[in-house]
Amino acid sequence: MQPFAYQAPASVGEAVALLADAARGARPFAGGTDLLVQMRRGLFAPGMLVDVKRIPELNRIDFDPAEGLTFGAAVSCAWLCDHPTVRQCYPGLIDAASIIGGAAIQRRATLGGNLCNAAPSGDSIPALIVLGATATLAGPRGTRTVAVADFCTAPGKTVARPGELLISLHVPPPAPHSAASYLRFIPRGEMDIAVAGVGAWLALSDDGNTITGARIALSAVAPTPLWVEAAGAALIGQAPTEAAFAEAAKIAQAAARPISDVRGTAAQRRHLVGVLTQRVLHGAYHRAKGEVCHG
Amino acid sequence: MASKTLVSAAINGEPVEFLCEPQQSLLECLRDILGLTGTKEGCNDGNCGACSVLLDGQLVNACLVLGVEIQGRAVTTVEGLADWRGLHPIQQAFLEMDAFQCGFCTPGFLIATKALLDREPNPTEERIRAWLSGNLCRCTGYDKIVRAVQAAACHLNNTCEVDV
Predict the structure, then answer these.
(1) Would you place residue A67 in the very low, low, confident or very high pLDDT band (cuts 50, 70, 90)?
(2) What is the ipTM of this complex?
(3) Chain B residues with CB inside 8 Å of A53's CB?
(4) Which residues does chain A have within 8 Å of residue B134's beta carbon, measured at their own beta carbons?
(5) pLDDT digits (tens, 9 = 90+) for B71-121
(6) Residue B53 needs a FRET pair 20 to 30 A away by CA distance; which of A45, A149, A228, B16 works?
(7) How many domains does chain B have?
(8) Could you tell me if A27 and A49 are in contact, meaning their C-beta atoms sit under 8 angstroms apart?
(9) CA B49, B50, B55: angle at the middle one, nearest 5?
């Protein structure tokens, strides 16, 4: 790796000041599981890494039944997955956070980093999108909040402006009779990058017989993780049946824009979107029926 | 050239001070500065697990941690497993179950196993295989490694049905 300076500020203000000084060419550094690998490959050579793991706002998990879940951008996947309330109330988020890397990567990698890395295959991004998550950024001109669905703009590109730092991610409180699920296809059991992935969120009527809310999002089949609004919209007002799920899966397949590469062909990816969409809808439905969140 | 930073940490229970540059990974610091060559470099990008160490008790890849990050923290490497009584029970189980051939991946597997058994004393075979998915072995086919982890677990828990 090229030499760089290292700073580990203790406040958002200090971090933003370091990042905003363009002359330094600074990058935020949390888990480093993408960043350090990319730097070794020579993809970029920042003049400074700003370690954000000592900033309190980026290193906390808060849940309130009325407010929902807010977790810092530097919270590791393992920290999130070991949190009893997150496990109970947001199993769809755990589906994604628990499959990013093996045990060692899990202890460093963050969902904040997964989002900022903006890989088309980022597993946690569809899970966050279907849960209606938002991202809070701080920069020299203040703080702003962006929907995760709008965060990634191209492979490796996001809406974050130079000098802006991702502070936290927020997931709304779980609605009654609602739940999410995320699945991906990989050729081995663990430690791989999605050939295709699908997240789904469903909300059911009190009697469980009607779908009152639905969102479906895809990974690794477009230049960015993709929210397919039409696939969710087609489910609203329907009974949760095989036929309804199959119809939504067709819409998701049509919206996918996959490429052929070393991991799979476009045709395989489009097929996988159909299979996975039906499976995650089943998964979300069964969770939503039994959904109990005690906070 | 970036200036060197003085880092104070506890490595295998011993206080250590060393000078390193920010771009030097913990793996480079352990091997090239501190002479602790038990921790191996395989892929140097977080895929193979040969550089597994414990950082404040948590399993990490030393190639993806910066040396400057361990200021004030505790690191355990494979050199810290055995003590004056002899090999650690995990090391003894790997030896007795023939859980390695070339041995290059073994320090990483030993550390990853310690991290697992420290938090989950009775893991299922499925859990062991999933936990060790970040450690690659090109010799054993993994089966003997899994048997060794099971043997180490029963030894540490005093639940072995037969002597292993």
Answers:
(1) very high
(2) 0.95
(3) 69
(4) 101-105, 190-191
(5) 999 999 999 999 999 999 999 999 999 999 999 999 999 999 999 999 999
(6) A45
(7) 2
(8) yes
(9) 70
Bridge partners, residue A80, by sequence: none
Report field, pTM of the whole predicted structure over 0.90: yes
pLDDT of residue A111: 98
Identity at B25, one-letter amino acid code: S
- Has residue B1 got a pLDDT over 90? no
Which three-class secondary structure string do you get for B78-91? HHHCCECCECCHHH
Determine the Cα–Cα distance for residues A124 and A110; give it in Å rounded to an integer. Answer: 10
**Which domain range does residue A9 map to?**
5-51
Q: Distance, in angstroms, between A120 CA and closest chain B CA?
A: 20
Tokens representing B24 are 């030097």
Q: In a 3-state reduction of DSSP, which class is residue B162?
A: coil
Q: What spatial distance separates the first Cα and last Cα of chain B, rounded to whole Å?
A: 53
Which token pair is B152?
């180490």
- Please answer yes or no on whether B66 and A32 come within 8 Å at the CB atom: yes
Domain count, chain A: 3
Interface test with B, best of A41, A190, A192, A193 (most B CBs within 10 A): A190
Q: Which residue has the tokens 């696939």?
A: A231
Beta-carbon separation of B134 and A103 below 8 A: yes
**Closest-CA residue to A54 (of B54, B16, B73, B6):** B73
- Among residues B80, B102, B126, the one where a domain terminates is B80
CATH of the domain at A95: 3.30.465.10
Please state, as a whole number, how many other Cβ atoms lie within 10 Å of the Cβ of residue A14.
15
Q: Which two tokens stand for residue A202?
A: 């469903």
Can you give the pLDDT at residue A294?
61
Q: Which tokens belong to A125?
A: 């991004």
User: The domain containing residue B112 runs over which residues?
Assistant: 89-157
Q: Please provide the average confidence, as pLDDT, over all residues in chain B.
A: 96
